[in-house]
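Hi there, hope your week has been kind to you so far. Thanks so much in advance, here it is:
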Amino acid sequence: MDKKIPVAIIGPGNIGLDLMKKIIKRSKNMELALMVGNEGSKHLHVAEEAGIPTTNQGIDELIKHKDIKIVFDATLASAHMVHAPKLKEAGMIAIDLTPAAVGPYVCPPVNLQEYKNEPNLNLITCGGQATIPIVYALSTVCNVEYAEIVACIARESAGPGTRDSIDEFTITTARALREVGRAKKSKAIILLNPSKPPIMMSNTIYCLVDDPDEEKITKAVNDMVARVQEYVPGYRLKIPPTIDGNKVTTMIEIEGAGDHLPKYSGNLDIETSAALAVGEGIAEALLKEGGAN
């Protein structure tokens, strides 16, 4: 049997359980060794029913498991601020699905190779994972003076964690559009749509650029969409790049894989898909270094 890297997930909520199912179904390099909750966790039984070891004793119990190499934190930004130093001291690599931004921002098709050896990697936000690849693609063929994104998600896809972290969402996403997407200035907006049936996640991207070349822009965007689709099959270009003067407008729609959540929850699916891609990359590097027991 091929060796795999033991990993854990903190947070048996919607995001944590969706990631759990992705690891079980698709991971080539990781083995889910522990699902971590606390005494108030309501859904640990889902992991137990899937045959995954669980604990309701939180971070202090997790760090006793010296075999675990990678930990996915699917809790809240405030909780990750507590978890991060403990994970680092325990020698575990943290992949942070909250907007806490303790470590560098990582977007798999843009900069994962640069940060594989970091002890803490931040997955920005769902809106960041959806739009930064496009803004970065534009930056490879023209200067992006300003980027503004509007992420629209179904109200049913915004659980307590998302709602509690909306301020962090806008701040973190806007900052990452600059630091990772290479826009000079940026703004991020999130909208919760109450329509029924629930809508798919859509992400409208507006950029002001210097000397836009339609052919180069279209190719760069299409190439990037294809790269993201390698780990997010439901990622698609809803509106191709449209150029009006120096403004470029495009829209991305995301359909979830339906592993644990409804397919309209593309906002959660892209975050867990990015987490899986980052974890796979780090685990592969650890295996090459002989990091599996």
Notes: The two ends are 13 Å apart (CA to CA). The chain is about 40% helix and 25% strand.
